[in-house]
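Inputs:
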Amino acid sequence: MKVVIVGCGRVGAVLAESFDAAGHEVVVVDLSTSAFDRLHTSFAGSAVRGDGTDEDTLRRAGAEDADLFLSMTEGDNRNVMAAQLAHESLGARRVIAKINDPVRAAAYASLGIATLCRTVLMADAVLGFVGERVSGMPGIAAPTGDHHGTHHAAAEPPPATVVHATATAGTDAPTSPEA
Amino acid sequence: MFVLVIGGGKVGYYLTKELIESGHEVVLMEKDRSRAEQIADEIGSIVIAHDGCEGKYLGEAGCARADIVAAVTGDDEDNLVICQMAKHHFDVRRTIARVNNPKNESLFKHLGVDEIISPTRMILGSIEQDIPVHELLHLAALGEGELELIEAHLQTGSPAVGRAPRDLDIPDGCSLFAIIRDGVALPLRPDTVMREGDKVIAIGKTECEALLHGQLIGDAETADAR
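Outputs:
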Protein backbone atom coordinates (compact mmCIF):
# COMPACT_ATOMS: atom_id res chain seq x y z
CA MET A 1 0.00 0.00 0.00
CA LYS A 2 0.97 3.66 -0.30
CA VAL A 3 1.80 5.38 2.98
CA VAL A 4 2.26 9.14 3.38
CA ILE A 5 3.78 10.33 6.66
CA VAL A 6 3.83 14.01 7.64
CA GLY A 7 6.49 14.80 10.25
CA CYS A 8 9.82 13.01 10.20
CA GLY A 9 10.52 13.15 13.92
CA ARG A 10 11.40 10.04 15.90
CA VAL A 11 7.99 8.44 15.54
CA GLY A 12 7.57 9.45 11.92
CA ALA A 13 11.02 8.15 10.99
CA VAL A 14 10.55 4.80 12.76
CA LEU A 15 7.19 4.32 11.06
CA ALA A 16 8.62 5.28 7.67
CA GLU A 17 11.41 2.74 8.00
CA SER A 18 9.06 0.03 9.23
CA PHE A 19 6.58 0.45 6.39
CA ASP A 20 9.44 0.66 3.91
CA ALA A 21 11.04 -2.50 5.26
CA ALA A 22 7.67 -4.25 5.00
CA GLY A 23 7.66 -3.47 1.27
CA HIS A 24 5.19 -0.58 1.20
CA GLU A 25 5.55 2.58 -0.86
CA VAL A 26 6.44 5.36 1.61
CA VAL A 27 6.58 9.17 1.24
CA VAL A 28 7.75 11.30 4.17
CA VAL A 29 6.98 15.02 4.42
CA ASP A 30 8.81 17.47 6.69
CA LEU A 31 9.52 21.20 6.73
CA SER A 32 13.18 20.65 7.41
CA THR A 33 15.50 18.55 5.28
CA SER A 34 17.68 17.83 8.30
CA ALA A 35 14.78 15.81 9.75
CA PHE A 36 15.34 13.32 6.93
CA ASP A 37 18.78 12.56 8.44
CA ARG A 38 16.89 10.39 10.92
CA LEU A 39 16.09 7.95 8.14
CA HIS A 40 18.49 5.06 7.71
CA THR A 41 20.50 5.04 4.49
CA SER A 42 18.69 1.85 3.49
CA PHE A 43 15.34 3.74 3.40
CA ALA A 44 14.05 3.32 -0.14
CA GLY A 45 11.02 5.59 0.04
CA SER A 46 10.89 9.25 -0.93
CA ALA A 47 11.12 12.45 1.07
CA VAL A 48 9.27 15.67 0.26
CA ARG A 49 10.24 18.95 1.84
CA GLY A 50 7.27 21.16 2.61
CA ASP A 51 4.50 22.22 4.95
CA GLY A 52 2.15 19.33 5.68
CA THR A 53 -0.78 21.70 6.17
CA ASP A 54 -0.38 23.02 2.64
CA GLU A 55 -2.61 21.35 0.08
CA ASP A 56 -0.08 21.70 -2.75
CA THR A 57 2.62 20.00 -0.67
CA LEU A 58 0.31 17.12 0.17
CA ARG A 59 -0.61 16.68 -3.49
CA ARG A 60 3.08 16.59 -4.33
CA ALA A 61 3.54 13.88 -1.72
CA GLY A 62 0.76 11.88 -3.35
CA ALA A 63 -1.78 12.09 -0.53
CA GLU A 64 -4.59 11.81 -3.09
CA ASP A 65 -4.07 8.11 -3.62
CA ALA A 66 -2.61 7.26 -0.22
CA ASP A 67 -4.00 4.14 1.43
CA LEU A 68 -2.70 5.33 4.76
CA PHE A 69 -1.96 8.90 5.80
CA LEU A 70 -0.24 9.58 9.12
CA SER A 71 0.26 13.05 10.57
CA MET A 72 2.93 12.82 13.22
CA THR A 73 4.37 16.32 13.68
CA GLU A 74 4.85 17.93 17.08
CA GLY A 75 1.83 20.21 16.66
CA ASP A 76 -1.62 18.85 17.47
CA ASN A 77 -3.38 21.39 15.31
CA ARG A 78 -1.03 20.95 12.41
CA ASN A 79 -1.72 17.23 12.58
CA VAL A 80 -5.46 17.80 12.71
CA MET A 81 -5.38 20.11 9.73
CA ALA A 82 -3.10 17.90 7.65
CA ALA A 83 -5.26 14.87 8.43
CA GLN A 84 -8.48 16.65 7.48
CA LEU A 85 -6.95 18.02 4.28
CA ALA A 86 -5.88 14.51 3.33
CA HIS A 87 -9.16 12.90 4.34
CA GLU A 88 -11.72 15.48 3.25
CA SER A 89 -10.11 17.33 0.36
CA LEU A 90 -7.71 14.85 -1.13
CA GLY A 91 -9.42 11.53 -0.46
CA ALA A 92 -6.72 9.63 1.42
CA ARG A 93 -8.35 6.36 2.41
CA ARG A 94 -7.33 5.95 5.99
CA VAL A 95 -5.98 8.67 8.23
CA ILE A 96 -4.37 8.72 11.67
CA ALA A 97 -3.42 11.95 13.44
CA LYS A 98 -1.29 12.33 16.54
CA ILE A 99 -3.18 14.57 18.98
CA ASN A 100 -1.66 14.86 22.43
CA ASP A 101 -4.54 16.76 24.04
CA PRO A 102 -6.98 14.01 25.16
CA VAL A 103 -10.05 16.26 24.79
CA ARG A 104 -9.15 17.18 21.22
CA ALA A 105 -8.24 13.56 20.45
CA ALA A 106 -11.67 12.34 21.53
CA ALA A 107 -13.43 15.16 19.67
CA TYR A 108 -11.68 14.39 16.39
CA ALA A 109 -12.27 10.68 16.68
CA SER A 110 -15.95 11.58 16.64
CA LEU A 111 -15.35 13.64 13.50
CA GLY A 112 -14.06 10.65 11.57
CA ILE A 113 -10.31 10.73 12.16
CA ALA A 114 -8.44 8.03 14.01
CA THR A 115 -6.49 9.82 16.72
CA LEU A 116 -3.35 8.77 18.51
CA CYS A 117 -2.95 10.34 21.93
CA ARG A 118 0.55 10.13 23.41
CA THR A 119 -0.66 11.56 26.72
CA VAL A 120 -3.07 8.70 27.27
CA LEU A 121 -0.67 6.07 25.91
CA MET A 122 2.21 7.11 28.13
CA ALA A 123 0.22 7.77 31.27
CA ASP A 124 -1.44 4.36 30.98
CA ALA A 125 1.91 2.69 30.28
CA VAL A 126 3.37 4.16 33.46
CA LEU A 127 0.29 3.50 35.59
CA GLY A 128 0.02 -0.05 34.28
CA PHE A 129 3.71 -0.71 34.87
CA VAL A 130 3.53 0.27 38.53
CA GLY A 131 0.25 -1.59 39.01
CA GLU A 132 -2.06 1.43 39.31
CA ARG A 133 -5.43 1.75 37.66
CA VAL A 134 -5.21 2.83 33.99
CA SER A 135 -7.61 5.17 32.19
CA GLY A 136 -8.84 2.44 29.90
CA MET A 137 -9.04 4.91 27.00
CA PRO A 138 -7.76 3.47 23.74
CA GLY A 139 -4.28 4.67 22.74
CA ILE A 140 -5.64 5.08 19.23
CA ALA A 141 -9.26 6.16 19.20
CA ALA A 142 -11.04 4.82 16.14
CA PRO A 143 -13.38 7.16 14.27
CA THR A 144 -16.79 6.87 15.85
CA GLY A 145 -18.80 9.37 13.84
CA ASP A 146 -21.59 9.35 16.39
CA HIS A 147 -20.90 12.52 18.34
CA HIS A 148 -23.28 14.99 16.77
CA GLY A 149 -24.17 12.93 13.76
CA THR A 150 -21.66 14.88 11.71
CA HIS A 151 -22.52 14.22 8.10
CA HIS A 152 -19.10 13.60 6.59
CA ALA A 153 -17.95 11.44 9.46
CA ALA A 154 -21.13 9.41 9.48
CA ALA A 155 -20.94 8.81 5.73
CA GLU A 156 -17.64 6.96 6.07
CA PRO A 157 -17.82 3.38 7.18
CA PRO A 158 -15.53 3.37 10.21
CA PRO A 159 -12.65 0.90 9.98
CA ALA A 160 -13.42 -2.15 12.07
CA THR A 161 -10.23 -1.95 14.08
CA VAL A 162 -7.50 0.62 14.03
CA VAL A 163 -4.85 -1.04 16.12
CA HIS A 164 -3.56 -3.98 14.16
CA ALA A 165 -0.26 -5.57 13.26
CA THR A 166 1.31 -3.84 10.27
CA ALA A 167 2.28 -7.04 8.50
CA THR A 168 -1.16 -8.67 8.54
CA ALA A 169 -2.99 -5.87 6.83
CA GLY A 170 -6.37 -4.59 7.90
CA THR A 171 -9.67 -4.69 6.09
CA ASP A 172 -8.84 -2.26 3.33
CA ALA A 173 -5.39 -3.38 2.27
CA PRO A 174 -4.69 -3.03 -1.45
CA THR A 175 -5.12 -6.20 -3.45
CA SER A 176 -2.30 -5.58 -5.90
CA PRO A 177 1.03 -5.32 -4.11
CA GLU A 178 3.62 -4.03 -6.52
CA ALA A 179 6.74 -4.52 -4.46
CA MET B 1 -24.41 38.51 23.31
CA PHE B 2 -21.51 36.47 24.70
CA VAL B 3 -18.52 36.38 22.38
CA LEU B 4 -15.44 34.27 23.01
CA VAL B 5 -12.40 35.69 21.22
CA ILE B 6 -9.31 33.49 20.85
CA GLY B 7 -5.97 35.12 20.10
CA GLY B 8 -4.81 38.37 21.67
CA GLY B 9 -2.79 39.75 18.78
CA LYS B 10 -3.71 43.07 17.20
CA VAL B 11 -6.91 41.70 15.66
CA GLY B 12 -8.09 40.00 18.84
CA TYR B 13 -7.22 42.99 20.99
CA TYR B 14 -9.07 45.58 18.92
CA LEU B 15 -11.97 43.21 18.33
CA THR B 16 -12.36 42.70 22.08
CA LYS B 17 -12.22 46.43 22.76
CA GLU B 18 -14.82 47.23 20.12
CA LEU B 19 -17.14 44.48 21.33
CA ILE B 20 -16.95 45.74 24.90
CA GLU B 21 -17.68 49.27 23.73
CA SER B 22 -20.80 48.02 21.96
CA GLY B 23 -21.94 46.44 25.20
CA HIS B 24 -21.30 42.76 24.56
CA GLU B 25 -20.03 40.25 27.05
CA VAL B 26 -16.56 39.19 25.95
CA VAL B 27 -13.88 36.77 27.10
CA LEU B 28 -10.48 36.86 25.40
CA MET B 29 -8.08 33.91 25.47
CA GLU B 30 -4.38 34.56 24.87
CA LYS B 31 -1.83 31.86 25.62
CA ASP B 32 1.13 34.19 26.04
CA ARG B 33 0.96 35.12 29.73
CA SER B 34 2.72 38.49 29.54
CA ARG B 35 0.64 39.60 26.56
CA ALA B 36 -2.51 38.45 28.39
CA GLU B 37 -1.55 40.43 31.49
CA GLN B 38 -0.77 43.50 29.43
CA ILE B 39 -4.24 43.42 27.83
CA ALA B 40 -5.94 42.64 31.16
CA ASP B 41 -4.26 45.68 32.75
CA GLU B 42 -5.89 47.83 30.15
CA ILE B 43 -9.33 46.38 29.61
CA GLY B 44 -10.00 44.42 32.79
CA SER B 45 -10.14 40.87 34.01
CA ILE B 46 -11.82 39.28 31.02
CA VAL B 47 -8.58 37.82 29.69
CA ILE B 48 -7.73 34.17 30.22
CA ALA B 49 -4.02 33.36 29.90
CA HIS B 50 -4.46 29.91 28.39
CA ASP B 51 -4.24 28.18 25.02
CA GLY B 52 -7.67 28.35 23.41
CA CYS B 53 -6.88 25.21 21.41
CA GLU B 54 -6.97 23.07 24.54
CA GLY B 55 -10.42 21.63 25.07
CA LYS B 56 -10.14 21.91 28.82
CA TYR B 57 -9.45 25.65 28.79
CA LEU B 58 -12.07 26.35 26.14
CA GLY B 59 -14.57 24.73 28.49
CA GLU B 60 -13.35 26.80 31.44
CA ALA B 61 -13.69 29.98 29.40
CA GLY B 62 -17.40 29.27 29.02
CA CYS B 63 -17.33 28.09 25.43
CA ALA B 64 -20.47 26.00 25.94
CA ARG B 65 -22.60 29.10 26.50
CA ALA B 66 -20.91 31.33 23.89
CA ASP B 67 -23.14 32.74 21.14
CA ILE B 68 -20.15 33.32 18.91
CA VAL B 69 -16.58 32.07 18.93
CA ALA B 70 -14.09 34.16 16.93
CA ALA B 71 -10.73 32.46 16.27
CA VAL B 72 -8.35 35.20 15.22
CA THR B 73 -4.87 33.87 15.99
CA GLY B 74 -2.15 34.15 13.35
CA ASP B 75 -2.13 30.42 12.65
CA ASP B 76 -4.69 28.88 10.33
CA GLU B 77 -4.45 25.42 11.87
CA ASP B 78 -5.15 26.82 15.34
CA ASN B 79 -8.13 28.81 14.11
CA LEU B 80 -9.55 25.74 12.40
CA VAL B 81 -9.23 23.55 15.47
CA ILE B 82 -10.72 26.22 17.76
CA CYS B 83 -13.78 26.58 15.52
CA GLN B 84 -14.25 22.85 15.13
CA MET B 85 -13.95 22.24 18.86
CA ALA B 86 -16.40 25.06 19.53
CA LYS B 87 -18.84 23.75 16.95
CA HIS B 88 -18.72 20.03 17.54
CA HIS B 89 -17.65 19.72 21.15
CA PHE B 90 -19.39 22.73 22.69
CA ASP B 91 -22.30 23.20 20.26
CA VAL B 92 -21.54 26.85 19.57
CA ARG B 93 -23.97 28.21 16.98
CA ARG B 94 -21.68 30.55 15.10
CA THR B 95 -17.95 30.29 14.57
CA ILE B 96 -15.72 32.78 12.80
CA ALA B 97 -12.17 32.05 11.66
CA ARG B 98 -9.39 34.25 10.40
CA VAL B 99 -7.60 32.55 7.51
CA ASN B 100 -4.22 33.60 6.18
CA ASN B 101 -3.72 31.17 3.32
CA PRO B 102 -6.59 31.85 0.89
CA LYS B 103 -6.35 28.25 -0.28
CA ASN B 104 -7.59 27.13 3.13
CA GLU B 105 -10.93 28.91 2.72
CA SER B 106 -12.70 26.06 1.00
CA LEU B 107 -11.39 23.48 3.45
CA PHE B 108 -12.58 25.56 6.40
CA LYS B 109 -16.01 25.99 4.81
CA HIS B 110 -16.23 22.32 4.09
CA LEU B 111 -15.28 21.47 7.66
CA GLY B 112 -18.11 23.53 9.07
CA VAL B 113 -16.62 26.90 10.04
CA ASP B 114 -19.52 29.34 9.67
CA GLU B 115 -17.67 32.45 8.60
CA ILE B 116 -14.22 32.81 7.14
CA ILE B 117 -12.37 36.09 7.05
CA SER B 118 -9.32 36.17 4.84
CA PRO B 119 -7.31 39.38 5.07
CA THR B 120 -5.09 38.10 2.26
CA ARG B 121 -8.12 37.63 0.00
CA MET B 122 -9.50 41.04 0.89
CA ILE B 123 -6.27 42.83 0.08
CA LEU B 124 -5.98 40.80 -3.09
CA GLY B 125 -9.54 41.83 -3.94
CA SER B 126 -8.73 45.50 -3.49
CA ILE B 127 -5.66 45.23 -5.67
CA GLU B 128 -7.56 43.35 -8.34
CA GLN B 129 -10.16 46.08 -8.46
CA ASP B 130 -7.48 48.44 -9.70
CA ILE B 131 -5.76 46.29 -12.29
CA PRO B 132 -7.19 44.68 -15.39
CA VAL B 133 -8.00 41.07 -14.60
CA HIS B 134 -9.62 38.30 -16.51
CA GLU B 135 -11.10 36.73 -13.45
CA LEU B 136 -14.36 36.98 -11.56
CA LEU B 137 -13.96 39.10 -8.49
CA HIS B 138 -15.38 37.70 -5.27
CA LEU B 139 -17.10 40.43 -3.34
CA ALA B 140 -18.66 38.43 -0.51
CA ALA B 141 -19.86 35.03 0.58
CA LEU B 142 -23.58 34.89 1.29
CA GLY B 143 -25.92 32.59 3.12
CA GLU B 144 -24.14 29.65 4.64
CA GLY B 145 -21.23 30.26 2.31
CA GLU B 146 -22.59 28.35 -0.66
CA LEU B 147 -23.50 31.54 -2.52
CA GLU B 148 -21.04 34.12 -3.77
CA LEU B 149 -21.51 37.73 -4.70
CA ILE B 150 -19.43 38.16 -7.82
CA GLU B 151 -18.32 41.00 -10.06
CA ALA B 152 -17.29 40.48 -13.68
CA HIS B 153 -15.58 43.24 -15.62
CA LEU B 154 -16.65 42.89 -19.27
CA GLN B 155 -13.82 43.31 -21.72
CA THR B 156 -13.12 42.62 -25.38
CA GLY B 157 -13.63 38.94 -26.02
CA SER B 158 -16.42 38.60 -23.48
CA PRO B 159 -19.39 36.73 -24.98
CA ALA B 160 -21.68 39.05 -23.00
CA VAL B 161 -20.64 42.28 -24.74
CA GLY B 162 -23.43 43.44 -27.08
CA ARG B 163 -25.90 40.94 -25.66
CA ALA B 164 -28.59 40.93 -23.00
CA PRO B 165 -28.95 38.43 -20.12
CA ARG B 166 -31.81 36.63 -21.89
CA ASP B 167 -29.44 35.79 -24.78
CA LEU B 168 -26.89 34.26 -22.49
CA ASP B 169 -26.81 30.77 -21.10
CA ILE B 170 -26.91 31.63 -17.41
CA PRO B 171 -26.53 28.57 -15.18
CA ASP B 172 -29.43 27.66 -12.87
CA GLY B 173 -29.15 29.13 -9.43
CA CYS B 174 -27.35 32.25 -10.65
CA SER B 175 -28.75 35.71 -10.94
CA LEU B 176 -27.27 38.68 -12.80
CA PHE B 177 -28.96 41.63 -11.19
CA ALA B 178 -27.05 44.85 -11.68
CA ILE B 179 -24.39 46.55 -13.74
CA ILE B 180 -22.06 49.35 -12.87
CA ARG B 181 -21.58 51.62 -15.89
CA ASP B 182 -19.54 54.84 -15.68
CA GLY B 183 -19.69 54.67 -11.91
CA VAL B 184 -23.49 54.39 -11.82
CA ALA B 185 -25.36 51.28 -10.66
CA LEU B 186 -28.17 50.19 -13.01
CA PRO B 187 -30.62 47.31 -12.69
CA LEU B 188 -29.83 44.56 -15.15
CA ARG B 189 -33.07 43.53 -16.90
CA PRO B 190 -33.41 40.51 -19.19
CA ASP B 191 -33.20 42.83 -22.21
CA THR B 192 -30.46 45.22 -21.00
CA VAL B 193 -27.64 45.10 -23.55
CA MET B 194 -24.25 44.90 -21.86
CA ARG B 195 -21.27 46.91 -23.09
CA GLU B 196 -17.54 46.66 -22.87
CA GLY B 197 -16.38 48.18 -19.58
CA ASP B 198 -19.55 47.27 -17.69
CA LYS B 199 -19.15 45.59 -14.35
CA VAL B 200 -21.79 42.91 -13.93
CA ILE B 201 -22.84 42.02 -10.41
CA ALA B 202 -24.12 38.49 -9.92
CA ILE B 203 -25.07 36.10 -7.18
CA GLY B 204 -24.48 32.44 -7.79
CA LYS B 205 -23.71 29.09 -6.32
CA THR B 206 -20.01 28.53 -5.87
CA GLU B 207 -20.08 25.56 -8.24
CA CYS B 208 -21.56 27.66 -11.08
CA GLU B 209 -18.52 29.88 -11.16
CA ALA B 210 -16.81 28.18 -14.09
CA LEU B 211 -19.96 28.53 -16.23
CA LEU B 212 -20.44 32.15 -15.24
CA HIS B 213 -16.80 32.79 -16.06
CA GLY B 214 -17.32 31.37 -19.53
CA GLN B 215 -20.40 33.54 -20.16
CA LEU B 216 -19.11 36.82 -18.76
CA ILE B 217 -15.35 36.74 -19.18
CA GLY B 218 -14.90 34.25 -21.95
CA ASP B 219 -12.65 31.25 -22.13
CA ALA B 220 -8.99 31.52 -21.25
CA GLU B 221 -7.63 31.74 -24.82
CA THR B 222 -9.90 34.65 -25.76
CA ALA B 223 -8.91 36.60 -22.69
CA ASP B 224 -5.21 35.96 -23.20
CA ALA B 225 -5.44 37.24 -26.76
CA ARG B 226 -6.06 40.76 -25.53
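Remarks. Chain A has six helices and seven strands. Confidence is low (pLDDT under 50) at residues 146-179 of chain A.
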